[in-house]
Amino acid sequence: MAKTPEDKKKKAVEYILNAVSNGIPLAHAVKDQKIGLNTWYDWCNESEELAGAIARARKAGHDVIATETLRIIDEPPPLTQNGSTDAGFVSWQKNRVWTRMQLLAKWDPKRYGDKLELSGDPDRPLAIQKIERVVVGK
User: Phi/psi class of residue 108: alpha, beta or left (left: φ > 0; alpha: ψ in -120 to 50)?
Assistant: First the structure.
């Protein structure tokens, strides 16, 4: 029995959600299924259920990527022929971890970003104490 377009879509959605929840970027997952990102976003706009599912999958995928950074950084570097640590390997591993952490900070800033926020609270709001204008010589 031939698969209907709806069956193909269902299979593609299942694959993409699984891939994303395992840390595969969405762009790679849709490409694997020969679907454009615009098509994927159209499907998500048409279905709140799918939009929620991809949000949950992304959150899980981000945790997978974060856990992977620990595995990468915990891997002991190989030794060179003279017994010293392979500095090139260490740099490569550091770059791999740094790149993943930078992506996580952009993709999920609330959980993985550097939160630098200056704010008060209802009991002690921040107030501007002084505004000063400084004119530098001509």
Answer: beta
